[in-house]
Structures are given as structure tokens and as C-alpha cells.
Design brief:
Phosphatase 2c, domain 1, alpha+beta, 6-stranded antiparallel β-sheet, about 325 residues
Length: about 325
Amino acid sequence: MWRRSDSKRFVPSDINRRFRAASFHDPEHDRARRRAALSGILLDGFGASRIGRTRRVNQDQFFMVPLVGDDTGLNVFLGVADGIGGAPGGEDASLAVVETITRFVREESAALLRGGHQDGEVIQILRRGLNRCHAELQSIVDHHPEFSGMGTTLTAGLVLWPHLYVAHLGDARVYLLREGGLRRLTQDHTYGQALLEAGVLNEKTIKTSAMRNVLSKYISGDEPEKDSEVHPDIRLEILNPGDTLFFCTDGLTQVLPDEALADILSSDRPSQEACETLMDRSRDLEARDDATALVVRFARSVTPPASRRKSKDTGE
């Protein structure tokens, strides 16, 4: 997982991180990567973040962590978070939530990897993790009243291959690319989106509406008596070999329409090249907000020849 060592003083401008089968140079997960390749699927992921033109601090986070004890290299937890701009402690909020939720998922890995569970059980585990994030921000505000009002978006995906559980709060997005077609799996939690759905705004007027970026749902540090729980959108998708997942913050989608995203992602380029192209485009279009992209491909792998495997196993 990428993280800042000191979020208050570290001002990132271009941050990249590669994830190959979620190995992170961990020998156990390197072995899992080889087993995944033999099963016909290889995870190839890359994430990048660039500070916005009008920002002093990058409030975005991205993450991708393997589940502890996974023996396939395909079961991972990934996503993006965007601290609320203009609110106190936005960068602290996004970092605290990412650290809290990834730690929670790793703690729950054994339960998540246990076979035979129902979808509802997985969803309840995710909800408990999100509520822990909410409690963490509440604790920060309790000890640091100057951070009152802090909050962050969070769009996360839990892959228990081939199931994908998406938990979403805010206006970051996740897309699924399948056979050249790009489909958005999340709906923006903004008042602008609500007005669009109500017919008050249209696709043209929402682009200039003051409500476009006003969040209606996110993880906050509000007092417990205001709301003791979070209320995410959660959906389930079934993944196929060859699928690509794309997570991004609104700093990217404000300057790149879905058509441009589809054009970049649908090429055969590796995840790193696709991600870097997205970052370059956001820079060229002078994105005002922080832009973050995480591209994860579940590629069909080329299985090594049987004779080579035999030679390796027998020591010939």
C-alpha cells in the first residue's frame, strides 16, 4: 500500500506504485502469483496520483493489499480515497481511513477467505470496517477539535475471485472494462447528481452547477449522536478473466470523459502504461483537483510449457 510517512509536510506531485499479483516482494505472494499464472489468470496493477493545479497538498490516497493467507494471488482489497477539499484535515482523513480499512480487512482475511460464506456475510464485514473508519475519524475530532468537519470519500473493492464487492461513499468512481466496453459501477454521491436524476439539471447544466461537487455522502468525523454509522452503496459483480478494474478520484473524471477513459483503458497496453497515460492527460488538461488512478487487469496468462515445469520440478 502506498502511504505518506508524514501527510502534513509531504507534498506529492507525482506518485506511482506497481502491484504485480499483489506480491510487494513478499515471497509467499510471489509464490501465489506463480500459482495464479498456472491457473490462467495473472493480476497486473498500477496506481498513480498527481497533485491538482490549485492544491498545496495531495489529499488523495490509493491502495491495494493482498488478503493474508491467500494462495491464489487474486484475492485483494483495493480502492481510492479523496479527502474533502476545503475542510480541515482532508489529507489526514483520507490517510486515516485508508490505514484503518486496510488494516481491518487484513485482520478479517481468514474469515473472508473461508469458503461457503454468503454474500450478506461479506457485506456485513465490509460495513463493520467502514463503521470502524467512521469511529476513527470521530476519535481524531474528539482529540483535535480543530479538525471538526473532516471527512473523506472512499471507493473500495474487495475481490474474492471471481466475486467483486464494491463499497462506495462519495464521488470517486470504479469502472469495469470488459471486452472493450467500459461500464461505471458507482453513482456519484453529490447534490448535483441528485438534481440530475430529479430532472432539475441535465448533462450540460450539471457541468457548471455549484452543486456538482457538493457531497451528499462520505465518511465523516461528525459527533456520534449525529450518525453512528456510515451508509455506503454496496454492489456485487462477477469478474471474468480478461477484465480490468479502474478506480479513480474526481480530479481525473472532471477533465476526462468516459469516452476518453475507455479509449485509454481498452488498449492492450500494460496497467502501468495506461495509468501513466491517464496522469499525463490530466496534467495536459490542467486538472484543478488531485487526480488519482488505479488500473488493475486480471489478464489471461500464458502457461509455461509442460516440459519446462517438469524440468523445474524434477531438477533436470
